């Protein structure tokens, strides 16, 4: 017997996707209204109760705030401490989290030609869930996107896809870069094929071309996030982490990525120009740095001698400034000069970022841009 409810269910069309409604993800180098960050505090990831990391986060927030409004989300028990350390013009809001990686636990913002702002709420499982994930639990992280949507009064699209913001970069003109190591990892979306993933990325971000790189940076604990390896710096132009040392495992990864990028065409049919950024180090964790981290079974251990996935590609593009990590005196100045040549209309600000790298990521990983709302009839 067919019930009326069965007839309704059978005839109901699925909800329209963001792309079908005209939304898309702008490039990071497009105009922003704000930047979102979170406050570090967990002692099993950040040494010495996260005090050195907090100082590094303050420096990043201060640098970005020269360019745009900065919001820092803080757990209640750290609110007064964060408010005391952060400059008055940086907005501190109570926004509970399990850790401080806003790029991955926060929303991916979308804009519409009519001026509306929306966001994508990806499923988050702490970079692999119980199969290689970096900590447990991640319940507070999963609520961050809905809370920000409420704060901004923005429409929220819930995506049927486990993903993190650091896994993607877009040019704002239909092209997306990602890695197979991350998105095709069985600890993310084991039932989805590459073609199905491309369709979902198109549906939720408005992209029409996906460029797949095989792997991310060597020993990147996020399973190879692209934002540590390669990023768009302009339409048709990308920056790629690079080493000429053929004995270093990173060389083969970067060489393979370079070959793919130079052979690819973007959504507009352009060939890509690839700018090489030198790899810092290699950098490893010192005994003194590892000894200050609490050892818990629910999080990733930090051991002396462990190599870190340091990269100058992990920078943030603000409205009038590019904030880059300072990681290695042997390469900092060269990397800065390259970025200054790529962003001639922006000031490049280098911030000491080793403390952030010790936690597993860097400046791009701890930030999330909120794009400027498009104004109908105006161009930027």
From TrEMBL:
Active site feature: 365
Keyword Hydrolase in annotation: yes
Enzyme Commission code(s) on record: 3.5.3.12
UniProt key word Membrane: no
Keywords: Hydrolase
Gene3D superfamilies attached to this UniProt entry: L-arginine/glycine Amidinotransferase, Chain A (3.75.10.10)
Record-linked PANTHER family: AGMATINE DEIMINASE-RELATED
Family, similarity comment: Belongs to the agmatine deiminase family.
The protein's name in its UniProt record: Putative agmatine deiminase
UniProt source species: Modicisalibacter zincidurans
Gene: aguA
